Known about the structure:
Elements: E1 4-7, E2 10-13, E3 18-24, E4 33-39, E5 46-52, E6 57-59, E7 67-72, E8 77-82, E9 91-99, E10 102-105, E11 109-114
Parallel strand pairs: 2-11
Antiparallel strand pairs: 1-3, 3-8, 4-5, 4-9, 5-6, 7-8, 9-10, 9-11
Amino acid sequence: xxxxxxxxxxxVQAGGSLRLSCAASRSIFxxxxxxxYRQAPGKQRELVAxxxxxxxxxxxxxxxxxxxxxxxxxxxxxYLQMNSLKPEDTAVYxxxxxxxxxxxxxxxxxxTVSS
Length: 115
């Protein structure tokens, strides 16, 4: 398994930006895919963005053009750059790792976008 630690959440006004970080306990090249999910109060957890081991990415339609997932292999870290934030982006954001032997979740970090 792998341990995941998120950071970078906070309070930001609509139109602002945040960058979330997810630090993994082992090389991200040993992980099939890493992704960011979010869960707003009263709603189901949803996929926001994913990056595969080969570098291919995909995004939820709601964040395309605004969010970018990227990685720093040397730091075992995946990032989510969030621009042009909207109040509807408010949620707890979770890092997720998909492995051949299972999966892991981070503890979550709160993102609040005010209007």
